[in-house]
Amino acid sequence: MARAASARRRCGESRPAGAGAASRAPRGRCGARCIVGWRRRSSAGPCRVWRVEAMASWVALSSSVVEYFEGEDFYRCGYCKNESGSRSNGMWAHSMTVQDYQDLIDRGWRRSGKYVYKPVMNQTCCPQYTIRCRSLQFQPSKSHKKVLKKMLKFLAKGEISKGNCEDEPMEPTMEDVVAGDVALINKLDIQCDLRTLQESLESEEKKKGRSAKKAESNELIQSQHPEEKLGSGEPSHSVEVHTVPKPGKGADLSKPPCRKAKEIRKERKRLKLMQQNPAGELEGFQAHREPLFPPKAKSNQPKSLEDLIFESLPENASHKLEVRLVPVSFEDPEFKSSFSQSFSLYVKYQMAIHQDPPDECGKTEFTRFLCSSPLEAENPPNGPDCGYGSFHQQYWLDGKIIAVGVIDILPHCVSSVYFYYDPDYSFLSLGVYSALREITFTRQLHEKTPQLSYYYMGFYIHSCPKMKYKGHYRPSDLLCPETYVWVPIEQCLSSLENSKYCRFNQDPEAVDEGRSKEPDRLQVFHKKAIMPYGVYKKQQKDPSEEAIVLQYASLVGQACSERMLLFRN
Question: Where is the composition biased (Low complexity) (predicted)?
Fold first, then answer.
């Protein structure tokens, strides 16, 4: 395995230090590891390459073959840089079905190349919670839209936006907060009744009198209830009064919004009609609760995520961007032909963004980390057209690769593995842009495969500022580390503020429903034979063997333990 520091995930996310478990495997005289598919000490002593002759028969029964390493040591943390704070359990996956991996990540596992690991959540220094975005309900924030518009301007006119070029926003922008307040103010304004309308008009004309005093009184009452939530979509009588901004710093939201003269004339005319015919027009208005202003036309509705991404460009556009989905396989001609360019981009990214030395960005590390996957490609008739498995989403700009997103397409989700890009194009916020493209891609796959609807973003680490940005893609859920149920992130944040490790499921009686209940049914591969653990354990004399196998069963759950083959030497 490559050193942990050489394989960081998006925005500083590191390859698990627990990957070092593989390096602790016993070695032969020449130093080769005694692991299936690697080197193994022969009975005579010297090392020889041991190839798995029975692989064909394994696949006929199960494509998932794993070798488990118990986590007994602490390692250097890639997030807080604690030299001995990280702890995880891990296993080497020689092959794995997409369904098994789907079930594993729903129990807190993740893969780094072919190494699959699970943090020991209550002991590791930086607990890592699996996070998923509900892509079908996702709505881009104002900062997300800015990134998409910035890309469109660059493609259409070659414009390069100045200012902040950070790959991921660490906190919501002030403009996002203000937008929510203005939306609520507009809604309350539309829902005002006739008396409020009349008082508003008198206020505009006289600027003094009872109506003005009443407005001041209302403002005083409103300022006493700042805890009332805004932007909830429900009418409210208490709106937080904002402090007056400095000159040139924006509108003063503590004052009513300015009205255009045209709107005032329309209100005045409508009020006059109501006064002329109080028995008809006014009665009808009160009966049907018609709004004072008709709703905006559909053309003025906010654009969807797809509208923003796939907005048409002029024929004379300055640049052309193409996103290609390429299977991770050296047998695929497109993957093979683009490998050299993709590898060069990876080296440039790791050295510029993560300051990795050249010897940690070699072709071997790149291949092992991002081009080797245990997932077996599957193309069922009810699955997506591209099939399931591991892919590279390549972003081609004017004929060259400027970014690559490594993803896994699984039965219920698109899982983001890693993302790297050309630092020369940092001004395009490619990290945010690629996440939005992957959410859109998940929605497209859902149209053909209804059960595929989630976008998994890896791990959310509340104690690590660089990893908190994932919580800005909402609605999203965090995985409870004890019961493995999904909990909306909004319900988890207050607990995480008080403690790094939290059980999100508030039901004290709830347990892990997928836990291992019958360990004897666990499948073991031993001496080229497949057998249930109940048979295997009768042949063993090592007392520590049972503890290791039972730990593995508790971590993968009953379903996976019965489907996957656990290799024991």
Answer: 14-25
Q: Yes or no: say if 102 and 132 are a contact pair by the CB < 8 Å rule.
A: no
Cβ–Cβ < 8 Å for 118, 69: no
Q: 150: how many CB neighbours lie within 10 A of its CB?
A: 20
Q: Which long-range contacts (CB under 8 A, 24 or more apart) does 40-43 make?
A: 40/569
Model confidence pLDDT, tens digit, residues 119-177: 999 999 999 999 999 999 999 999 999 999 999 999 999 999 775 554 453 333 323 32
Q: What is the distance between the alpha carbons of residues 374 and 480, in angstroms, rounded to a whole number?
A: 26
How far apart CA 476 and CA 470 sit, in angstroms, is 9
Question: Is the separation of the CB atoms in 89 and 125 below 8 Å?
Answer: no
3-state secondary structure of 347: helix
Cα–Cα distances in Å, from 495 out to 471, 478, 506?
A: 15, 12, 11
**What is the sign of the dihedral through the CA atoms of 397, 403, 409 and 415?**
negative
Interstrand relation of 88-95 and 110-112 (parallel, antiparallel or unpaired): unpaired
DSSP assignment of 54-81, as one string?
Answer: THHHHHHH-S-EEEEE---S-B--TTT-
Residues 93, 567: Cα–Cα separation, whole Å = 10
Single-letter amino acid, residue 411: P
Token pair of 182, please? 């203005």
The rounded distance, in Å, linking the Cα atoms of 552 and 118 is 11
pLDDT band at 248 (very low <50, low <70, confident <90, very high): low
Amino acid symbol at 335: F
DSSP 246: P
Structural contact between residues 16 and 71, judged by C-beta atoms closer than 8 angstroms: no
Q: Among candidates 190, 191, 212, which has minimal Cα distance to 201? A: 212
Write out the two tokens for 168. Answer: 């991921």
Distance CA 496, CA 502 (A): 7
d(CA 310, CA 330): 31
Looking at residue 431, its pLDDT comes to 97
Alpha-carbon distance 432 to 442, whole Å?
Answer: 16
pLDDT for residue 274: 72
Residue with tokens 């520590």: 544
What pLDDT score does 452 carry?
Answer: 98
Instruction: Find where tokens 């807080």 sit.
Output: 80
Taking the chain, what is the end-to-end CA distance rounded to the nearest angstrom?
20
Q: CA-CA distances (angstroms) from residue 1 to 9, 16, 349, 545?
A: 16, 11, 20, 25
Closest by alpha carbon to 144, among 455, 436, 439? 436
d(CA 469, CA 461): 10
Q: Rounded to whole angstroms, how far apart are CA atoms 118 and 108?
A: 6
Residue with tokens 């109501």: 274
State the Rg of the chain over Cα: 29
Q: Who wins on pLDDT, 13 or 357? A: 357
Question: Which token pair is 387?
Answer: 């099939």
Q: Which residues, 6 or more positions from 391, have their beta carbon under 8 angstroms from its beta carbon?
A: 325, 326, 327, 328, 406, 407, 408, 409
Q: Are 471 and 129 in contact (CB under 8 A)?
A: no
